[in-house]
Structures are given as structure tokens and as C-alpha cells.
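Sanity check

After download, print the first record. It should look like this:
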Amino acid sequence: MYHHNPAVLHDVYEINLSYLMLAQKLLGENLAAGAYRLGVDQDTAELLLNLSPAQVVRLAQSSSLVCGFRLNDADLLQSLCQGTLDGILQQAHAAILMAQPAAELVK
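Expected C-alpha cells:
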């Protein structure tokens, strides 16, 4: 069983808080583009955008990460880490590959 290490819990809080603040910033600038970049559906995007500061802090205090690791396909992760493409082409390739799971949310 996992024992909660205070340092790890603090790190999780920091990541959660940063993620939620970034999510609100992205969604506030452009809801549809932010939802796409975050890999969330429209309803979740609106909920995230409308969280109060107190709700953001409470959610950030969860002992689990509130964000998910989208590169959960080993082949996808390996292809992105190989670095055979340069600069902008590598970024475009990554965006296309990572968009596939996000596109499923829109269906």
C-alpha cells in the first residue's frame, strides 16, 4: 500500500494547481481551442473555466493528479521521443498524433 509522503503530496498539489490555472487561462482565451489542447469535452471545459479560486485550490489539494498523461501508448511515446523530425515538423507530428484521442471526445 502506498504511504502518503508529505513532499510528494505537496508536489501533486503544485502540479494540480499549475494545471488548473493553465487550463483556465487556455479556456479563457479560446474555449474550443483550450478544450482541444487539454483533451477535455465541452462540458468539462466550461466547468473548469468557471471554477472559483477556492474551488481550484480545493481541487488542487487532491492526493491524486487531476490531469491525465495523454501519451499512454508506448508506440506513440517512442515515436515522439526518437527525434527523427526537426523543429516545427516534430511539433506538428506530435500534435497530429496526440489529437487522435482528443478527436474521440468530440464525437
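If your output differs, re-run the checksum step. Summary of this record's structure: The radius of gyration is 16 Å.
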